[in-house]
Amino acid sequence: MNTTNMLLAAPEFWVLIMACVILIADLFIREERRGIIHMMAMITLVFAAIITVRGDYLSEGLRSATAFNGSFIRDPMGDVLKLFSFFILGIVYVYAKFYLRQFRMFRTDFYTLTLFALLGVMLLISANSLVTIYLGLELTSLSTYALVAFDRESKRGSEAAMKYFVLGSMASGMLLYGMSMIYGATGSMDLADISVAISNQDGDSMILVFGLVFLVVGLAFKLGVVPFHMWIPDVYEGAPAAVTLFISAIPKMAGFAMAYRLLYTGLGDLHTDWQQMLSILAVLSIVLGNLAAIAQTNIKRMLAYSTISHMGFILMGLLPGTADGFGASMYYVIVYSLMSAGAFGMIILLSARGVEAEQLDDFKGLNQRNGWYAAIMAMIMFSMAGVPVFVGFFAKWLVIKAALDAGLLWLAISAVIFSVVGAFYYLRVIKLMYFDEPLTESPIDAPVDFNAVISLNGLLMLGLGVFSGSLIAVCMSAFGA
Amino acid sequence: MPITEIVFYVFSLVMVSAGVAVITVRNPVYSALFLVLAFFSSAAIWLLLEAEFLAIVLILVYVGAVMVLFLFVVMMLDINLTPLKEGFIRYLPVGIVVAVLMAAELLLVIWSKGSFDQGAFPIPPPNPVGFSNTKALGELLFTNYLLAFEAAGVILLVAIIAAIALTLRKRVGEKRQNPAMQVRVQRDERVRLVKMDPEPRQGN
Questions:
Q1: What are A72's strand-pairing partners?
Q2: Averaged in consecutive runs of 10 residues, what is the pLDDT profile of chain A (481 residues)?
Q3: How far is B63 from chain A (nearest CA, A)?
Q4: Given an 8 Å threshold on Cβ–Cβ distance, is B157 in contact with A112?
Q5: With an 8 Å Cβ cutoff, are B155 and A139 in contact?
């Protein structure tokens, strides 16, 4: 193995080193100066982005390059997803700092655990063998289990962490079982070799399909699509808002990349089989997610069910198995992460000392308390509902088009119907903000950086919608479409 | 029937019945001990497959460390198992349906043509004398699977951080040592010399 090959993983090395440096630095920094840790984490993200952009493997005219005996791959899709992970994690850190300070939980563990989770996400995005996929997944999950129980005084938090841990381990078990079947049938753990072995096999592929079922189950657990969604509402509600913000935004990117690598790079020849499974999962998620969200009074739970439906939409983009479809799906996952970060940012903003603003009623009359914050929340909600001009509309439009390309008219129709149903609960938040009387008159104050970032986040909903072409082009070209 | 086959069937039988016993016996200590038995028999089967290193590691790590720890936990925590079994009857039908489905699928795969035939998996040639399993594994681990090896290391690090982050905290009434304070302690803080008049001798 030569060094140029190993340098393909330079962003991963950088994040790993910095996570360890921050871990050690914490010992020497007094509690009242912990802002330094926040700055170090931000610097980590900035330089990780710079290192990723400067990856020069593309200049040699290659679409992708592998390292570590083919278990690690760098390609444009991975780079785009990683860059957006860094960007969105930066947003998450700004929101989280405000929250953690207010709730007296401003500890370094948050930063080290999220950075290790980011490392897992990066590994998962760049994984090119079953082993790397599994290890990346475990690294991400283990860090997030601990993060859910971050508020050690909270009983709900511990309960949620326990549920998440047990169900997550079971999902990992399913995934491993499926992987062992695939390995048994193809004799390789390298996704490229698996793909070759499958295309060379003739006729009977019962064992492959059996393995595929378990892989899809594991994947569905991790993405949280119906009927493997039970943990999502409890975890979203039980975890501190700063952690929910993280969980809802960053690991989803890895989930999409994992689905792409496993199902397309590895098992592309079983396309007809997994297309059926995913289309059922997608339609169930969209229907149940949108219907259950209507009944919620807790906004964290509502957003949890909305996540489930969004995951259904992301699966829709995978169905045709074409570059256009994957591009649409990736666009959706990036847009979703931005929207979700913004929505949880607003919850953090409204959380007054010691009490999270997790009830829908907390948003009542927000317009009278602060017009600009209400406008930001309105933009995020419009975008989630998929109202035209806002970015969420284009994301939905592209994945529905992908489903039509795959010839799944029934799926496209039900997706459209249930996004109209879903619009109800997003618009209800807007109605509460603009047409109801506020429950409290206490002013909302936030630090300058928080205000700047949440304004940017809200404006991105509109800006990326009006100028939607460029990001869509980036996502499409990442798959060579 | 060659001797290896007899050995294989004996150990498999022991392993499967020990596995069944793990989940059926009522006493959790017996259950843990049955698991140890299952580990031992699977280690024996690994030996049959010429995987000595894995067999030894299984016993050292799982029996020697994990299960002993587990036994400690079981014995030290007085867990009342009755509430754990409360929902058993209620969830039994769903459980049976899932189990039957899984078993049917497994059998379908095993019996499907060609998946597990001798033809699909020919018997590998026996290793030459003096072949070191441990060395072969080590070589693979540090070349082909270097990334996986490192990632596994990071996962262990995260496990340590997570365990500390979740349990290390300051409670009320906690007795904690502060080494810095201990080092800086002065004599006067520990020993107080008190001047006392000698008491007059009593009696005679």
A1: A67, A127
A2: 73 95 92 91 96 76 81 91 96 94 89 96 95 95 94 89 93 93 88 90 76 92 90 93 94 94 91 91 94 92 94 93 92 95 93 81 88 93 92 93 90 93 93 89 86 93 89 88 65
A3: 21
A4: no
A5: yes
Q: Residue B109 is nearest to which of A136, A146, A210, comparing CB atoms?
A: A210
Residue span of the structural domain in which A30 resides: 7-478
Query: Considering the domain boundaries, does residue A188 fall inside one?
Result: yes
Q: Confidence band (pLDDT; 50, 70, 90) for B72?
A: confident
Mean of pLDDT over chain B? 85
The verdict on a CB contact (< 8 Å) between A72 and B147 is yes
ipTM summary value: 0.92
Q: Kind and range of the H or E element at A287?
A: helix A271-294
Contacts of A193 in chain B (CB under 8 A): none
Amino acid present at A430: I
* Of residues A132, A333, A354, the one with CA closest to residue A240: A354
C-alpha–C-alpha distance, residues A31 and A35, integer Å = 9
Q: Which of A71, A112, A119 sits opposite B161 (nearest CB)?
A: A112
Taking CA atoms, what residue in A is nearest to B145?
A68
Yes or no, beta carbons of A132 and B161 under 8 Å apart: no
pLDDT band at B116 (very low <50, low <70, confident <90, very high): low
To the nearest whole Å, the CA of A39 is away from the closest chain B CA by: 21
pLDDT at A2: 52
Contact A68 B147 (CB under 8 A): yes
Round to whole Å and give the CA distance between A148 and A137: 16
Check A210 against B105: CB less than 8 A apart. Answer: yes
Given this model, what pLDDT does residue A1 score? 46
| pLDDT exceeds cutoff 90 at B27 | no
For B:101-130, CB contacts with A below 8 A are 105, 108-109, 112-116
Return the CATH number of the domain spanning residue range B1-83: 1.20.120.1200
Query: Is A84 buried (19+), middle (13-18) or exposed (0-12) by CB count in 10 A?
Result: buried
| Contact assignment for A116 to B158 by CB distance below 8 Å | yes
Q: Which long-range contacts (CB under 8 A, 24 or more apart) does B157-161 make?
A: B157/A20, B157/A116, B158/A113, B158/A116, B158/A139, B158/A142, B158/A143, B158/A146, B159/A142, B161/A23, B161/A109, B161/A112, B161/A113, B161/A116, B161/A146
A367: in domain: yes
Query: Looking at the 3D structure of chain A, how many domains does it have?
Result: 1
pLDDT tens digit sequence for B11-22: 999 999 999 999
Nearest chain A residue to B164 by CA: give it: A109
- What is the nearest CA distance from A139 to chain B, expressed in angstroms? 5
Structure-block tokens of residue A171: 């999902």
Residue A313 and residue B16: Cα distance in Å, rounded?
Answer: 44
- The pair of structure tokens assigned to A6 is 């190993």
Are A152 and B169 an interchain contact pair (Cβ–Cβ within 8 Å)?
yes
Q: Is residue A2 in a domain?
A: no
| Any domain includes A1 | no
Beta partners for residue A298, in sequence order: A359
Alpha carbon separation from A282 to A108, A234, A458 (Å, rounded)? 38, 21, 28
Spatial distance between the Cα atoms of A419 and A384, rounded to a whole number of angstroms: 10
